[in-house]
Amino acid sequence: MKQILAPIVSNSEIIPDVHLIRIEAPQVAAEARPGQFITACCGDDVLLRRPLSIHRIEEGQLALLFAVVGQGTAWLANRKQGESLDILGPLGNGFKVQQNTHNILLVAGGIGIAPLVCLAEKAVDDGISVKLILGTATATQHYSEVDGVEIIRVTEDGSLGEKGMVTDLLPSIAGWADQLFACGPISMYRTMAAMGTEIEGKSVQILLEQVMGCGVGACRGCAIPTHQGMKMVCQNGPVFDLREIMWEQITAPKIGQF
Ligand SMILES: Cc1cc2nc3c(=O)[nH]c(=O)nc-3n(C[C@H](O)[C@H](O)[C@H](O)COP(=O)(O)OP(=O)(O)OC[C@H]3O[C@@H](n4cnc5c(N)ncnc54)[C@H](O)[C@@H]3O)c2cc1C
Question: Ligand 1: does its nearest atom lie under 6 Å from the Cβ of 212?
């Protein structure tokens, strides 16, 4: 883990209200793995660093993909090429692909695509077949192609691909996969956790985007209930086994708390 001032290479809005920022961070990129995250200082007026998943690792650069939802991400969206970003990372545990895995299915709800692209690119490099179910509210929010990955597109309004939710398609595709990886809202995880035979027996890892304080296990602000007791999202996660979490006790992040 390192804290560095990372020069911004580019920053653009690639989807309405979603920015892709590229930073020069060779020290962090060298250690980073899919599913890990960094925390970024978002200006003098935002108290806590904001956690963001590693979206891409490219020759000493990191790409971060983020939705503009509040003060911190609005500040980030206004940063320009040539400025620097104070980041700390890589943090957290990351996704674990087992040695005997040949096929992986990724399930992305909205901005949940951010960490899954990193995992998809690494898996394709390692010779693993990758399918991705990507769901958004409408067509304009969809992410473009990912090399070597079959994308099954879903929209709530039916403007692109299948009409519905990613979890509607999941049961029919899950059988193909050796392992499942997901990132999305709590409601998506709850639906997945309630699925029976469709995904039973499959290893399902999910990335939990819980509000966190310090990001390094000191403040315990991101503690969540699991069947093995309380765990911290920043240090024990953010990747957990789907069935490990006590979903009925988890609440979605609240507006502008810190
Ligand atoms: C490990 C981890 C990885 C993450 N990776 C990404 C990523 O790659 N891309 C991305 O866009 N977001 C990601 N998030 C969520 C991101 O950290 C928050 O959206 C961000 O902190 C909001 O800051 P803000 O100051 O703009 O908003 P705030 O003013 O703090 O809050 C505004 C809105 O954002 C929501 N919000 C705040 N914090 C979170 C949170 N942690 N998760 C979900 N919603 C939140 C609130 O409910 C509220 O509606 C990640 C979170 C975690 C814990």
Answer: yes
Q: Which of 209, 211, 224 to mutate to test the pocket of ligand 1 (most atoms within 8 A of CB)?
A: 209
The tens digit of pLDDT for each residue in 62-104 reads: 999 999 999 999 999 999 999 999 999 999 999 999 999 999 9
CATH classification number, 103-249, choose in 3.50.50.60, 3.40.50.80, 3.40.640.10, 3.40.50.720: 3.40.50.80
Query: Using CA atoms, how far apart are residues 41 and 161, in angstroms rounded to an integer?
Result: 38
pTM, rounded to two decimals: 0.94
Q: Tokens 């956790």 appear where?
A: 193
Q: Which residue is listed with tokens 């957290």?
A: 92
| Ligand 1 close to Cβ of residue 9 (< 6 A) | no
Q: Which atom of ligand 1 is nearest to the CA of 18?
A: 11
Distance CA 123, CA 121 (A): 5
Collapse the DSSP code of 24 into the 3-class scheme (helix H, G, I; strand E, B; otherwise coil) and give the result: strand
The CB of 40 under 6 Å from ligand 1? The reply is no
Residue spans of the domains in the chain: they are 2-91, 103-249
The model's pLDDT over 103-130, given as tens digits with 9 standing for 90+, comes to: 999 999 999 999 999 999 999 999 999 9
The fold of the 2-91 domain, in CATH, is: Elongation Factor Tu (Ef-tu); domain 3 (2.40.30)
Candidate of 73, 206, 250 to mutate for ligand 1, largest count of ligand atoms within 8 Å of Cβ: 73
Q: What is the largest CA-CA distance in the chain?
A: 52
Average pLDDT over residues 27-37: 97
> Given a cut of 60, is residue 154 above it in pLDDT?
yes
CB atoms within 10 A of CB 239: 22
Q: What per-residue confidence (pLDDT) applies to 141? A: 94
